[in-house]
Amino acid sequence: MKVLVATEKPFAAVAVNGIREAVEKGGLELALLEKYTEKAQLLDAVKDADAIIIRSDKVDAEVLDAAKQLKIVVRAGAGYDNVDLEAATAHNVCVMNTPGQNSNAVAELALGLMVYGARNLYNGTSGTELKGKKLGIHAYGNVGRNVARIAKGFGMEIYAYDAFCPSEVIEADGVKPVASAEELYKTCQYISLHIPATKETKNSIGHALLSSMPKGAVLINTARKEVINEPELVKVLEERPDFKYLTDIMPGNHAELAEKFAARYFSTPKKMGAQTAEANINAGIAAANQIVDFLKNGNRKFQVNK
Ligand code: 3PG
User: What is the pLDDT of residue 64?
Assistant: First the structure.
């Protein structure tokens, strides 16, 4: 049986070696489609795949139609908004993610962006320090927890809001839980976003929340661009010369933001939060092992289209 690694943004070579080893040890064959530029290449590569490992690569109904032998798709990472779960279920394809495997990498980048913001995008002017500043973590999952752990080392005062995580869990980490997103944004100068892109969260971060942030507000986004209401973000940046937006996911209106707010806006050219050898090894090999365990033993532990 064939396992296809289809990654428009490839894993580090060392991770691919690890994936190959895990796949071959499981008696399966590995095929690679890296840095593809056309959907047609993906449609062709999936034809004889029994399993696929992806990153942010889009798996929609057309891909699933083309993949006649497909039994499982594993998103090597956390967010699976790039996979059409309904279509996968209709095609009897199991979809999994690899929760937690790349979260430290994303959290380290979030803190890196915070330092970059505090030091005025390294433009040589006098900046500020993170020590003693209030940080609001929006969603306390695997990445949020790692952000809290690292931010403690910087001496930040840490708050978190998560509609699905019990307060006691947040408190146990020495982080202050708050009752609503509104309270989090009103309280914290720094906000680090870790919400997934869902029907409920898309466009949910807009003028009301952002304009309520304290003076010197910095919004860090290592989650998804879709959760931001982009026109309203522009409005906030226009109204508040003290507001900074630093993101790892290039917004749809990047050109406008870069032109109008160059001193207070930054985006990485390509999402790179999880782009470390360690995260690639962890998530990639976890994905390979989950596929082997599913195909051999029927283990569905990490299935997300239940
Ligand atoms: C994730 O959801 O795991 C992160 O956003 C990383 O995505 P990537 O694998 O496309 O870098």
Answer: 98
Q: Which of 102, 143, 224, 302 to mutate to test the pocket of ligand 1 (most atoms within 8 A of CB)?
A: 102
Does the 103-267 domain belong in CATH 3.40.50.720? Answer: yes
* Ligand 1 midpoint to CA 227 (Å): 15
User: Which band of pLDDT confidence, cut at 50, 70 and 90, is reported for residue 131?
Assistant: very high
Structure tokens at 171: 């408190």
In Å, what is the CA distance from 79 to each residue of 8, 118, 178?
16, 28, 24
For the domain 2-101+275-297, what is the CATH code? 3.40.50.720
Q: Mention every residue, 6+ apart, whose C-beta is less than 8 A from residue 169.
A: 140
pLDDT tens across 243-261, in order?
Answer: 999 999 999 999 999 999 9
Residue ranges of domains in the chain: 2-101+275-297, 103-267
Task: Please give all residues whose beta carbon lies within 6 A of any atom in ligand 1, as ranges.
Answer: 9, 55-56, 77-79, 102, 271, 273-275
